[in-house]
Amino acid sequence: MTEDTASSSQSVEISGHSAKIEQLKKIVEKVSATDVNVLITGESGTGKEIVGRLIHSLSNRKNKPFVPVNCGAIPTDLLESELFGHEKGAFTGAITSRMGRFELASGGTLFLDEIGDMPLAMQVKILRALQEKVIERVGSNKSIKVDVRIIAATHRNLEDEIGKGTFREDLFYRLNVFPIEMPSLRERLDDIPYLINDLVDKFKESTQVDIKLTNQAIESLKQCKWNGNIRELSNLIERLIVMYPNQTVDVEQLPEKYQNQSPQSDSLALKNLEMTQTVIVNQSSEHQGLNLRDMLHHIELKYIKEALDKTGGIVSHAAEHLGMRRTTLIEKMKKFNIVK
Description:
The chain is an alpha/beta fold. It has helices at residues 19-32, 48-58, 76-84, 101-104, 120-132, 158-164, 169-175, 192-207, 215-221, 229-243, 266-284, 292-310, 315-322, 326-335, and strands at residues 4-5, 38-41, 65-70, 109-113, 134-136, 143-145, 149-154, 178-181, 212-213, 248-249. Strand 5 and strand 6 (143-145) form a beta hairpin. Helix 1 crosses helix 2 (48-58).
């Protein structure tokens, strides 16, 4: 079992300058000056632990341990021992006495991640520890005083869980002294360039490998849904570092699901093309025997070739010029046997 000590010398920051993040930074600054319990909510992958670490690093407890524990990742039969410790012989395999996370965090901050996944029986014990500031190791009746600040986090709606009977209302109010809701990445798309820079720097420290993303690639990423939030973005950057070490990544190097460069929809692009086609058809309709289908295909082919010529054959750039998605342009290139 290890502990993290977040000292004032360590850099913990929230990336970005969007309105949502600037508001979050102000909230963090205010709550860091207090010693109240904090409940951080939000979708998975939004950076709840980063905020917890930042609160700790700005607080009076910054020179004491920051101890994280994922309540949903520890088996139920081991959770009590992990949190409260155990005495020698308390159960099979307990060959020595051991401190739990509460003792390790004494004087500092205990970060209870995924608190919403904690079993009801354990919630009772957590509530007692918060109310009385004492814990008992498994296999002992001796009370041990602990001085910890609790920062809890969850992706669940705990009020809904209370209604289902899976989360204790009294524990919720004990934790929810100061609530913080994390914005999803979809709500702060303008922060993506800052997040990418920080993630590249982070991976560069451990891999000595650098990458750069073109503005077009970044714009493409800003149009994605990001259901996995910052964690999904982090996984993507790590993947790109492996695939394109010390290179510049353009839209074409991104996995296909992230190739959404053009803000125009395909329907709008096709509508524009249809308007052009209609004009020419009207101009030519007086001529008998005219093959309209061949004419329309000729017009479409002409537009595509001109776009590819202007953009040096870069499909993603040509698609943007035409106002359509890259995948749509590729389908049309196959249709006309255009080789880039």
